Structure formats: structure tokens, C-alpha cells
Amino acid sequence: MAITKPAPQNKYSEQYIQNSSYDADFDMATREIVGYDGVNLQRIVADSLAIKVTVDGSVTYIGIAAPGTTQASAFWQCKKVDESSGIVVTWADGDANFDNVATDLTALDYS
Questions:
Q1: Which pLDDT score, from 0 to 100, does residue 44 have?
Q2: CA 84 to chain CA centroid, nearest Å
Q3: 23-58: b or e for each residue (b if 16 or more CB lie within 10 Å)?
Q4: What tens digit of pLDDT does each residue of 21-79 get?
Q5: For residue 47, what pLDDT is reported?
Q6: Are 33 and 43 in contact (CB under 8 A)?
Q7: Whether pLDDT at 9 is above 90
């Protein structure tokens, strides 16, 4: 016996959503990309996040978080960009989660 889920119920029809996403200035359908910044679901635009950058020789450490997040709060996504032999990008704790502190980006474990 197969278990079936009921069809999702939306407030608006698919056609209404498609029509609403049309941008007349660019003559194309548009979508807005959102993402989780460790605290909230918000628009993905470069200037909507707090950013901390630390450079140590050929290695650049980058942390991003929701605006207003203190560096001591464990709500930062941190990555390491090593340019010593090509470009190698690794993440704090081996993942892209927003669960790191940014007081000293060089002290985190990257993989």
C-alpha cells in the first residue's frame, strides 16, 4: 500500500507566481535568492552580511555573519583561501555552517 501525500496548497496559482516574477525592465522572469545566514533567512546580496578578513602571507581567512553579530558569537561562517600553491579553499570545522567564532580566524581548524 503506497502512502501518498496531499498536494501542496498555495495561496497563489503557479501562473500568478510566474507572472509576478516578470521584470519588464530586463524583459525576463526573475527570482530572488535567499539563504540562511546563521540567524535569519534573508536575501543573498554581498552587502547584507558582516565580513571579517584576515591576511597572513599567501593565506586569506574570511568570516561572514548576519549584520550586528559579535565576533565572539558562534554564528560565523569561516573559510580559508590558501594561494601558496594554486588556490585551495577550506572551511572551518570542514563545513560551511554558521557556527564559528571570528575573534581569531587563524586559530580555527580548516579542512
A1: 62
A2: 26
A3: eeeeeeeeeeeeeebbeeeeeeeeeebbebeeeeee
A4: 887 887 877 777 677 766 777 666 656 788 999 999 999 999 999 888 999 999 999 99
A5: 61
A6: yes
A7: no
Going by C-beta distance under 8 Å and a sequence separation of 6 or more, which residues neighbour residue 102? 52, 63, 65, 71, 76, 78
For Cα atoms 85, 90, 91, give the angle at the middle one, nearest 5 degrees.
Answer: 160
Cβ distance 79 to 65 under 8 Å? no
Residue 15: what pLDDT? 83
Report d(CA 21, CA 18) in Å as an integer. 5
**Helix segments in 31-76, DSSP class H:** none
Strand blocks (E) in the chain: 22-23, 28-29, 34-36, 41-43, 50-56, 59-65, 77-82, 88-91
